[in-house]
Amino acid sequence: MTSSPKVFESIVRHYEECLKRHGDSYRGVDGSSQEGAEASYDVMLGLLRNRPGERVSLLDVGCGLSHLLERIHARGRDDIAYSGLDISDRFIERARAKFPTVQYYCGDILDESFRIPQFDYVVMNGVLTEKVDLSFEAMWDYSQRLIERAFSIARVGLAFNFMSKQVEWERDDLFHVPFDLVAAFVARRLSRHFVFRHDYGLYQYTTYVYRDSACA
């Protein structure tokens, strides 16, 4: 959903076809189950390290239908000022219809002409888990550029997920990335203050990256 059309045209088309077939549901963003989707949202929110009563801003990159915001509401979190971003105008149109008071951005954050403010936290849930017909090398190159750009927007921390290599089998259309590759990239290009989460029962893992060691 979040991508450069020149690189990720097939992925954008894939997600928009899911939306067309399944509508506003976990299947509409190519999820495998509602329970799994909610687990992913909860792990994304686990990135936040705000103190009680402290309100923080959060940008949901690849927001799709803003199901993360629905999870925020379900958990009674009134300490999060949520904004959404997606490259697909079809998803943004549907999200805006549901949440007309939310600030949404439609565009590619790697486009130099695309301007977006900073946020306390940035999350990318499901943005880098499917490569559809791309090679591993092409997807990894894009992932690094997107992660670096997203981290530049985050004042405190960033969360993103990949499919795990700790599985019985892999699918060619999914993006399974080894821990050591991610750790080397994050430590070299972003920050030495990072955490891997592989403890929530799905065939994926989430990386938290913080600017300050006090947050990790």
Descriptive account of the structure:
The chain has 216 residues and is α/β, with parallel strands linked by helices. It has a single domain, classed as Vaccinia Virus protein VP39 (Rossmann fold), CATH 3.40.50. It contains 6 helices and 7 strands; from the N terminus they run ααβαβαββαβαββ. α2 packs across α3. The two termini are 28 Å apart. The N terminus is likely disordered.
Distance between the termini: 28 Å
Q: Which regions have little confidence, pLDDT < 50, spanning 5+ residues?
A: 1-5
How many helices? Answer: 6
According to CATH, the homologous superfamily is Vaccinia Virus protein VP39
CATH architecture: 3-Layer(aba) Sandwich
Could you please say which CATH topology applies here? Answer: Rossmann fold
Describe the strand arrangement of the main beta sheet, using strand numbers: 3-2-1-4-5-7-6
Number of strands: 7
Helical proportion? 25-40%
What can be said about the biggest beta sheet?
7 strands, mixed
